[in-house]
Structure formats: C-alpha cells, structure tokens
Write a structure and sequence with these properties.
- With 125 residues, the protein is mainly alpha-helical.
- It has one domain: Helix Hairpins (Orthogonal Bundle).
- It has three helices and two strands; from the N terminus they run ααββα.
- A hairpin with a 2-residue loop joins strand 1 and strand 2.
- Helix 2 packs antiparallel against helix 3.
- Keywords: Chaperone, Coiled coil.
- It holds the Pfam family Prefoldin_2.
C-alpha cells in the first residue's frame, strides 16, 4: 500500500531531463547562498548600529546636545546626539526584522531544496 502511494507521488512530479534537474538544483543552491550572504551582511550592519549606539548612549547621558555627524544617503549631516540615537535605534530594529524575515525565507527555501532532492532521488557523493 505504501509503495503505491509513493509511486503516485512520483508520477505527479514533472518529467525533467537530468540537465533540467541539475539546473533547478543549482538555481536553488544559488538562491540559498544569496540569502545567506544577505543575512550575514545585514547582521553585520545591525552589529555596527549596536556598537555606535553603545557609544552614543554614553554621550547622550552626559551631553545630549553634543554635535554628531551622520552619513545619510552619501551626505554627511550634522545633528545632535539626542536626534541621532532614536533614528539609529529605529534603523537597527528594522534591520533585525529584515534579518528574521530573510531567515524564515532561508528555512523555507532550504526545505524546498531538501524535498526537491528527496523527490528526484539526489544524494551527496
């Protein structure tokens, strides 16, 4: 009984040539690598924001009206510490949300890749 259901499941698979299977597999692997790279990049950016915020929080406690320079869209602007800290916190939180969203996408794509490998009988050599 179990073998007939697995035969039916395999018959629902699209008939792909070995080259198409390989291309799909490589495409899925490249998508995973791209997502992992973007996640790493954004995590590094969030860490940089955290480092800057820890320094600015000390300045905020001692001297909130102290001059502070911030790069916005390639333009260096002068602000005060009390103006910059909330904006940096918002940016860091947004980056963290993006990282968690990308991590969920990564897990979904990873599951898709595993099911693709299972469906087409692929195993590591």
């Amino acid at each position: 009984m179990a073998s007939s259901s697995s035969t039916k499941a395999k018959s629902n698979l699209p008939s792909l040539t070995p080259q198409e299977i390989q291309q799909n597999f490589l495409r899925m692997q490249n998508e995973l690598q791209a997502l992992a790279g973007k996640i790493g990049e954004l995590e590094q950016e969030a860490d940089e924001h955290t480092l800057v915020l820890s320094t600015l929080n000390e300045a905020l406690a001692e001297e909130p009206d102290r001059k502070c320079f911030r790069l916005i869209g390639g333009v260096l602007v002068e602000r005060t510490v009390k103006d910059v800290v909330p904006a940096l916190q918002t940016n860091r939180d947004g980056i963290r949300k993006a990282v968690s969203s990308l991590a969920e996408q990564y897990k979904a794509k990873e599951e898709d890749l595993e099911s693709f490998k299972r469906d087409f009988g692929m195993r590591p050599i």
